[in-house]
Amino acid sequence: MSPSTSIDAHASAGTFATLPRNAAAHFKLCFLGAVLHVVDQLAHNLGGLDEVIEQFPFLRAYLDELETLGATPTTPAHDWLARVRQWELGVDAHLPIRALRHALDLDDRDLTLLFAIGLIEEDPRFGFVIECAQPVTPQQHRPTLGLLTAWWRGGDDVAPVRECIRVLLDNGLIQVINADAPRLQWVFQSLPAVWDAIRGDILRAPAPGLTYIPPHELGSLDALVLPANTRRAAAAAPALLASGDVRAFIVRGPRHNGRRTLVRAIAAALGRGVLELRGPLRLDDARVAIAGALATLAHAIPMLVLDLGLGETADVPPLRGYDGPIAVVLGKHGAVSGRAVDGAITINVDMPDAHERRALWEQSVDAHDAEDVEHLARRFRMTSGNIRSAAALARSYALLDERTRITPDDVRVAGRSMHRELETLATLLPASGGWESIGASESTLGELRNLETRCRNREALREHVGRALARQLNCGVRALFAGPSGTGKTMAARILASTLQMDLYRLDLASVVNKYIGETEKSLDQLFSRAEELDVVLLLDEGDALLTSRTAVQSSNDRYANLETNFLLQRLESFEGVLVVTTNAANRIDSAFQRRMDVVVDFHMPDPHDRWTIWQLHLPLEHDVEHAWLQDAAVRCELTGGQIRNAVLHASLLALDDGRRVATRDVASGLQREYRKSGAVCPLPPGT
Hints:
It contains 29 helices and 16 strands. It is α/β, with parallel strands linked by helices. The model is unreliable at about 1-15 (pLDDT under 50).
């Protein structure tokens, strides 16, 4: 810090009255206190003040500045700092150094030593002073433990100085840059992020993985769209935290659902900022080492954001250098432990209901920009954050189509662009058609339509049943499609998604299943959570690979397989989206899974009438297949819908290559091909 940036040069001697009452002035006063101590030690070592000025002439400017503020070169540093503390009494604003001193119970020695280590950060010329003062460490511009001990020991006892340095190190205020050197040759430096915060200049990203948001950028509780019970809890939280009765609070809910926004609003009510750390956190994490001091210096609430799976527990490490409330943001699952969160209160932020979603849509789009806000609120069960993101993207898609009004299709396409994390674990399948497109029995079609009805009313259903049943229900719908291969199970899932106007994602087993213990469960939990947040239909095709029956434990493999099954049982029960599981081996699925299914649809081998319908659905509208021959094929060829589909594809390919319409001989060729694939003999001779 060059003298040209000195405090008000017109300040009268002996008074701080004209100084601005802010963090910058306080920093400069503490900085000058360290200069006083260094000059005193130099004078002792060199024989007098004149010798000091002769060797380090730049110090004259600092001494002149001290004189304008009522100090002399012989004023003890502790007397100067006593005057600084008296000046602090008239400052209501947050002073980072004062807050740090109170949090760590720092004395004058601690403070001057901390600033002495940081002198070079403000004025590089102090590097030459440090180098000359420690000749045994040539070309070293930062202070060593030996020099600090010599300048601050005050007698033969070095223990107080070393204890002071230990406190500064433990609380992330300074660091050793050559820990492998002999102890007395340890070189100390201030951490850039911490030094900036000491100056009152904390950055938005003070260090990798840390984000600071100042109080003036935080919203208020009144502006948030929250359930009534959440709003009541959030409104009471600031008073509890300010009283000290509660030292930590946990905010739970889906991602992108206003959890962090709620923490910020509570912090704003306390007049604090927020310092955000995203997990996982470890004791040796460099962010944890400085987060406490940064939070104290910035007058911010540390907010730890953790993404835990079902059954996971994270230890919240102590934030050294901080003595205030802590916020932890969690999903619906997982837990935290540690003294830092003992006695924490929990505030749940559930998915917004239709009424709350309408309010969010009205905030996100102008009334004249959307065709029907009420329909958007009912149709898209999204988190609050995803609603805002989808609204902005939907507006862009509408403009691309040269429209000003947003349609549900715009929102659906916009929502799909937010599926990136889901797409690492599942594959988007095209969803189209209606129930008339599937050749299933009337009983199967009836169950599928009942499933569609259940999905459409999954939110409102709880309001139309008794209290005991309502407490057991959530918004999830779990369906099992059981039947032989090729009977239309996957096609039915596509049609269900199409009728619900939802995207369909199929679980990618290769991306989820992991040989390492516990990793499969983590991936599955992540998949289910993303599907809930993004309001998509999730398909577990050939689900018996995951939902196998539990077995007697005869080896460690059996034990861990059973644990995986138990995890899925719990996760399916809490799932709040739409899940379809298909299987052609229902007997292999654990009975407990079947009991947890809301709807079970059996797909049977098609009878002659069903096969006739399937043939008509798959053949082109204009074809030359003989009617009587096709009827005979529907009766005698006991194929699945998938096999009929393949036969028609082969027939159409033959006709296309010849440039004509599909004929009887083409279909007959396709039939013969399907029977050969299955190792059976076609009951019909090849067509002519």
